[in-house]
Specification:
The protein has one domain. Helices cover 67% and strands 0% of the residues. The protein is built from 13 helices and no strands.
Length: 362
């Protein structure tokens, strides 16, 4: 870590990154919306095959009977005739988009680069497999830590349900659920920092001239940064998470008040506003984590002694600041002991011409 650690406001500066580099958020939202619209066409066809010729559909149009909707979804889930099978082709497409746009977003945040789609995709491709390895590591650690907690919570819930009912049982089960959610948020924050440092490490060049792809090198720095800034990092993460869920809950509650209306587009816009706000808070978290990592940067790699890096295998980035200063001329401490020769317009005749009479004493 650097000798002098800056302590900028990660919330304010993280929000500045989201506002000044909006392309990452907009392209991610466009990807999610496009996939949702494309793969909802099959669900629309499945519901149409059930409800288009049924009088029960009127109960959805006039009063939005949830029982009728549940029955229709139940038929779809059990592959009723003329409904077909569910299509999950959108899942791999979503994962590919995630593993391209997320590292591209973090690169643009750290480099303060414009978030145009070619930049997002190209930088995302360079970090694609690194982020897959981080995701697999995240899943493994989450199973090892959250698995026993979930198993204990299930046993505790079964114990409470066998002996209590109502609010008394609820208040005994809620603390365990809150503890699991807090631990899951902490794990998510830590591996978010691992991803940020992985992008930062990718800017360093190894002695062989290639980008540093070793994920293990960022695990400990991410842990140290989280430990040194635990209160403000974890607190900001939780606040933004609650803000995102609150936006979705407010949109859902408002949409429930508008059900069974003759026009559906206001509900659609309201739902999209809630989802967009939740996505914006997630990018806000990414911006805050980027600021935290920039204020606590990775140490620069030092090449081994005697290493001669060939000029063809490295990229030379010239900047005016990198040019070595030119030495100033140093005056000679010992002046010339002999006087300078005077410059005369023409030779002196008495010096350079011989007169015999004068030399012989005549």
């Amino acid at each position: 870590m650097g000798d002098k650690v800056q302590r900028r406001s990660i919330l304010l500066h993280g929000l500045r990154l989201v506002v000044t580099i909006p392309g990452a958020l907009l392209w991610t939202y466009a990807l999610n919306l496009g996939l949702a619209l494309v793969f909802s066409l099959r669900l629309h066809a499945q519901l149409s095959s059930i409800l288009d010729r049924s009088l029960a559909a009127e109960r959805l149009n006039s009063a939005f009977d949830l029982g009728t909707l549940e029955a229709a979804l139940h038929r779809i889930s059990y592959h009723a005739p003329q409904t077909g099978n569910s299509d999950y082709a959108g899942v791999p497409l979503y994962l590919i988009g995630y593993f391209l746009l997320v590292p591209g977003t973090l690169f643009c945040f750290q480099a303060d680069a414009p978030s145009r789609l070619p930049i997002l995709i190209s930088s995302g491709i360079s970090f694609f497999w690194r982020f897959i390895r981080i995701t697999l590591l995240t899943g493994l650690v989450s199973i090892l830590i959250l698995g026993p907690m979930l198993a204990f919570q299930n046993h505790w819930s079964q114990y409470v349900d066998d002996r209590m009912v109502g609010s008394e049982a609820l208040w005994r089960e809620v603390p365990g659920l809150i503890a699991i959610a807090l631990v899951a948020a902490l794990l998510r924050l830590y591996f978010d920092l691992v991803e940020v440092y992985a992008v930062q490490l990718g800017e360093q060049v190894r002695p062989n001239g290639r980008s540093d792809r070793r994920i293990r090198r960022v695990l400990l720095p991410a842990l140290r940064t989280l430990k040194a800034n635990f209160a403000r990092a974890y607190g900001s993460f939780l606040v933004l998470t609650l803000l995102g869920f609150a936006a979705v809950a407010a949109a859902a509650w408002s949409g429930a008040q508008m059900l069974a209306q003759p026009r559906a587009w206001p509900i659609f816009l309201l739902a999209q506003a809630g989802l967009f706000t939740m996505m914006a808070t997630r990018f806000w978290q990414r911006g805050a984590e980027t600021i935290l990592a920039l204020d606590n940067p990775l140490p620069q790699a030092v090449p081994p002694p005697g290493f001669d890096d060939p000029i063809d295998d490295r990229i030379i980035r010239y900047t005016p600041e990198s040019e070595p200063p030119r030495p100033h001329p140093v005056p000679d401490p010992l002046p010339d002991p002999e006087p300078a020769v005077p410059s005369l317009p023409e030779p002196d005749p008495g010096v350079y011409h011989h007169e015999p009479g004068i030399r012989d004493g005549r």
